[in-house]
Structures are given as structure tokens and as C-alpha cells.
Amino acid sequence: MRSKIIKDFHKLWRNEFLNDKVTFLGNKICKSPMDLWIYQEILYDIKPDVVIECGTYMGGTAYYIASLMDIMNKGEVITMDIKQRKHPKHDRISYFDCMSTDADLIYTLNNRVKNKDAVLVILDSDHRKKNVLRELNIYSKFVTKGSYIIVEDSDLNGHPTVYPQWRIGVQGPYEAAKEFLKSNKEFEIDKSREKFLIGVVKSGFLKRIR
């Protein structure tokens, strides 16, 4: 019964409230508030020098993270997206208009994160399994021990979301993370980061343990 209630509420919330109805200081942020609170806890625990975000969208998440970094007086956000939009300005945010797997971008990131003590990565761009798995293989190398690579929207394809814009049977972030973990023992799923039960990151908080 408990499991069914959680799943049913998750589906209701996902279909009714997620897209364009969550804002941070007036900026649209396509994230679960429950997950955003976990982000805050992770940021405080890790105190990252750099957060890399694949998939800027409206820039709300980058602005949220940068604002928390202001409070901690540490860190910068590097975010990229293939679509050019008007994004909130912040001294701690660097925006790139390109694919997350662009070779020139990866070269730039290598230089930007080199010798950094703590690097956190968020994957929230093209959610198809092939792309997410490629991102995992590329960006996992930037993640420092004790930090995370967060696979957003890993609730899709019935985990537990049945989402009108995502046909059941189309593999996505969840399946990509599962395959990635089979051959990457440096990471493990941190289920403690799902303590609020309702969120779109399902088995997607991947912590680097070695």
C-alpha cells in the first residue's frame, strides 16, 4: 500500500506540476522541489569547486546552485545546452551553447576542472539512453571521489513515471545508469539521497566511492 501511494502521487505530481510550474526567485526551474533540497544538502556536504550541468534549459537550476554557492562563498557552475535562450545572469555561471558531448567543450572542461578538489556533475540534457550513457562515460571522469554524477529524470519509462511525452518502452536515463554501473565500480547508487520519496531522480544519485 505504501509503495502504491508513493508511485501514484509521483505520477500525479509529475504530470500536473513539474513542467514550468516550479520557479526559483522568479526563474523557471524544471526540477522536483524534493530533489532540489537534496541538491542543497549535497552542495553543502561536497562544497564543490565546480558543478557541471548538461542541459541548461531556462537556467533556473544553474541560478539556484550559484545562489547557494554565494552563501557558501565557493564554487562555479558550467552549463551547456544546444538551444540558445535568455538565461539569468550570475557571476558564478558560465553558459555554453553546444552539445554536451562537443569535443571542444570537453577540452575546455578538462582545463577548467584540472586540479580541482571537488567536482559535481548533473546530466539533464537529451534523455535517450544512448546519449545519457555517452555522457556518463565522458563526464564520470570529471567527478571527484566522494562527489556525485546526478542522472536527472531517471524516473522515466515506468520508474515509476508514465509521462505523456515519453513513450513507455523507450529506454532512457534509468537504463543508461544501470548499464554504466555494470562496468564502473568506482560509482554506486546512493539511495539515502531519495529519502523524501517523491523526486524524479530514481537510482540516479551516483556517488564516486573510489
Structure description:
With 210 residues, the chain is an alpha/beta fold. It has one domain: Rossmann fold (3-Layer(aba) Sandwich), CATH 3.40.50.150. Helices cover 36% and strands 17% of the residues. The protein contains 6 helices and 9 strands. Strands 5-4-3-6-7-9-8 form a 7-stranded mixed sheet, sandwiched between helices. It has a two-stranded antiparallel ribbon with strand order 1-2. β6, α5 (129-139) and β7 form a beta-alpha-beta unit. The longest helix is centred in the first third of the chain and has 16 residues, at 2-17.
SSE diagram, text form:
Layout: H1 2-17, E1 23-24, E2 27-28, H2 33-46, E3 50-54, H3 60-72, E4 76-81, E5 93-97, H4 103-113, E6 119-123, H5 129-139, E7 148-151, H6 173-182, E8 187-189, E9 205-208
Parallel strand pairs: 3-4, 3-6, 4-5, 6-7
Antiparallel strand pairs: 1-2, 7-9, 8-9
